[in-house]
Amino acid sequence: MNLKIYSITNKINSKKYIGVTKDLDTRKRKHFWELKNNRHSNEKLQRDYNVFGGSAFEVEILEELKYATKKEGFKKEVFYIWKYNSCDDGYNMSYGADGSNLSQITDDTREKHRQEMLGNTYWLGRKHTEETKKKIGDVHRGKTVKASTRKKLSEKAKEKTGEKNPFYGKQHTDRTKQKLREARSKKCRCIETGVVYNSVKECAEKMGIPKARTHINQVCLGKARQTHGYTFEFVE
């Protein structure tokens, strides 16, 4: 069969997703339909699509394989994933669809992927550069959050109430509570829209996600990359 090794590249941060397919046009339509409708199974790719928008991504053919077997296609896919480091520093969730080259993956890398699958953010401890923040802002400048979008975000937040909330049954220490109060009293900016709010509470309420105050705070502190598809930072 004839196969194509392709990449989906974020033109702003240069991160890539590597894939292999027989029909690139069909595969491309499927990728972007799922991304546009917030239904893509690849959480890393979906998160950045929500931040940067569809215009920030481009698809290109890296190599065409004629009369290749499926196994040969998978091996070539793995080659490009390693070449571009697109699993650790890109959008691939694993090293190839057939599990090829798993013996080459270090224990540390395996643990990292395991933690990601458990839901830990791969952005922990990282922050956007000023250049990247500017690019994100340029992409979204002038956009407003539609009422329908605010409703969807609110409904999504309701899904994590009660026992569904990972913090259910736990309590903050007095020290943590004080830190949260101090953080929430700071001004914060939504990078995508450029709007500055007097507090995290005001930000959450005006954006239609009133129960996301803690999540917004985590993003501002650099402990999470984004929440509800948006990125935030404190303003001194």
TrEMBL record:
SMART domains: GIYc, IENR2. Residues 1-93 form the GIY-YIG domain. This is GIY-YIG domain-containing protein. CDD domains: GIY-YIG_HE_I-TevI_like. Residues 142-151 have a biased composition (Basic residues). It comes from the Bacteria. InterPro entries: GIY-YIG_endonuc, GIY-YIG_endonuc_sf, I-HmuI_NUMOD-like, Intron_endoG1, NUMOD3, WH-like_DNA-bd_sf. To endonucleases of group I introns of fungi and phage. Residues 135-178 are annotated as: Disordered. It holds the Pfam family NUMOD3.
